Amino acid sequence: MSRQTPPDASMRIALIGIVAVLATAVLGLLVAAGVSRLFDRSAIPAAPLVPAAPPAPQLEVRGGGDLAQVRARAQAKLSTYGWTDPGHAAARIPLDRALAITAQRGWSDPEPAR
């Protein structure tokens, strides 16, 4: 003998399920609204935005002194021989000499050599 549920009982179970789902959804919306009101910052007046002052300029102590040092170091590198790396794998030559070599040999594309 199989036991069957009456049609009223299955309808009642479905109705209880639908009501439970709707009640859970309404409860979730109420909780979300409460949390939203709790963290609502529009009620608190915002502090006026004050722009931050830019940093003070780093001025030279001696007028033109730093520029003269930079130019002297650059001129020394452009006019002397030396190593460009500690492993002595690459050297620099004076600019005048490099221009003379380039004029003598001609310009070649450096990409194929790499």
Molecular structure report:
The chain has a two-stranded antiparallel ribbon with strand order 1-2. The mean pLDDT is 83. Among the domains are: 9-41; 67-105, no CATH class. It has helices at residues 7-38, 65-79, 95-105; strands at 82-83, 91-92. Helices cover 51% and strands 4% of the residues. The chain has 3 helices and 2 strands, in the order ααββα. Strand 1 (82-83) and strand 2 (91-92) form a beta hairpin.
List its salient traits.
51% helix, 114 residues, 2 strands, mainly alpha
* SS class: mainly alpha
- Order of strands across the widest beta sheet? 1-2
DSSP summary: helix tally: 3
Q: What is the number of E strands?
A: 2
Relative strand content: under 5%
Terminal CA distance reads 90 Å
Main β sheet profile: 2 strands, antiparallel
C-alpha Rg, in Å? 41 Å
Helix content: 40-55%
Structure in a nutshell:
The chain is mainly alpha-helical and 114 residues long. It has helices at 7-38, 65-79, 95-105; strands at 82-83, 91-92. Among the domains are: 9-41; 67-105, no CATH class.
List the topology elements.
Elements: H1 7-38, H2 65-79, E1 82-83, E2 91-92, H3 95-105
Antiparallel strand pairs: 1-2
